[in-house]
Every structure is written in C-alpha cells, then in structure tokens.
Amino acid sequence: MSVTTDAPVAACLASQYAGWKIQQGKYFAMGSGPMRAAAGKEELFNKIGLREHPAAAVGVLEASRLPPPDVLEMLAESCGVAPAALTVWAARTASQAGTVQIVARSVETALHKLSELGFDLSRIESGYGIAPLPPVGRDDLEAIGRTNDAILYGGEVTLWVRGDDESLAAIGPRVPSSASPNFGAPFAEIFARYNGDFYAIDPQLFSPAVVTFSNLDTGRTFRFGRTLPEVIGRWYE
Prior knowledge:
Elements: E1 2-5, H1 8-16, E2 20-24, E3 27-32, H2 35-39, H3 44-48, E4 57-62, H4 69-79, E5 86-91, H5 96-103, H6 106-116, E6 124-130, H7 140-154, E7 156-161, H8 166-171, H9 187-193, E8 210-215, E9 221-225, H10 229-232
Parallel strand pairs: 4-5, 7-8
Antiparallel strand pairs: 1-6, 2-3, 3-4, 6-7, 8-9
Helix pairs in contact: 1-6, 5-7, 7-9
C-alpha cells in the first residue's frame, strides 16, 4: 500500500505516530491520531510543537478490546474536551483495519527515526512511502509480526528535502532499519525477545527498509538500506 503527504511533520508525527502509551488498570492501548496533539503528553511535542486546543478530539487505539468508560473519560480529560466531544476508533492488530493502520506508517517511521537522530524536520517538504500489505494474522502476535515486517523489511520511503547534501550523506546510513543490530530477524521473534514491550525494543529498528532523500535544492538523490524479501516470504509458508 502507498501513502503520501505534503505536511509530513503534522500528519505523521503530530497525529499518525502511535506514541501515546495508554494504560489504566488492566486496559492497555497504543494511541494515535490528532487527539495526541490535543493531549500533548509526549516528549516528542517539545521538539515539534504543534500542540492543539480543539473543541473536539479524534483518535485511534490499537487495542485488543474496546476501552471502558473510565478510559474514555481519562482520554477526554487529557485532551481538554468534554467526553461527548471525543471520538475514538479501536482496532486490534489482527484485523483488516489494524493491519492497514500499521502498514500505512511507512513515512511516519522514517520521520520519527530522523527526529530521534536529531535531523532538522523542517527541511522535509513531502513524503511518499510504499509497503506490502500482509494477510491478516491469526492472532495479534502474528499480526504484529507481519505488519512490522512489512515496513522494516519491505517498506520504501522517498523524502523530498531542502538544504545541503553533506548532511544527507552523513545521516543516511543511520536511517533505515538495517542500522539496528536486530535487523534481519522476523519482528515476532524480536517482540518476544523483549517480552512484548514495544518501547523496550531498540528504537533504531523502527524505520523503513529503504529511505531515499531527493534534494530539491541540489537535484541530487541519496538512497540507503535494503529490503529483505525472504522475511516477507515467510508470511506465505
């Protein structure tokens, strides 16, 4: 599947990134969507700004079940809106909606990686990404493995940027998923190794397999990384 944006920081990092770890009682979800900019709880917003104070908030939860009323009330309070002004969608990973939601994050993962590396995100004008859409997993663990493999080993992103070429050549090798020592193992194996905690996994892994920078100022193009079709092929064994 393919995605494109001409407002990459706002669309990908202030909204699409599942950076809100929602945990209340026995309920856990990974929150994404524009409600994150309303809550502004993550350290990321100190880097990018883009906090909002809306009259209504919308978000998406990657979760195995629907949120109970107390979680919805907490979300509304965090976003500074009335409960009736909050709209939330929830989808488990092992579903069509959950699968599409994650695989659509090819550009987002590239931007988040660049942010972690200290790249000036204001240089990025546009982004385009593709990644193979896997079959829906039999359970959430299998689905988490397949959807992340799609980006880590099959995702390819092009970013149109401004500025000098030297910084692109220097940072480029650190951007693709191959920069992580975990690169090469199916994500389900990596996930199990870290006891199912996304936030404990080496953050250098979370990036597309291939990242291309196209410099609008100089006309030069830089391509980094490689795909691993043999990992993708395991979906069909």
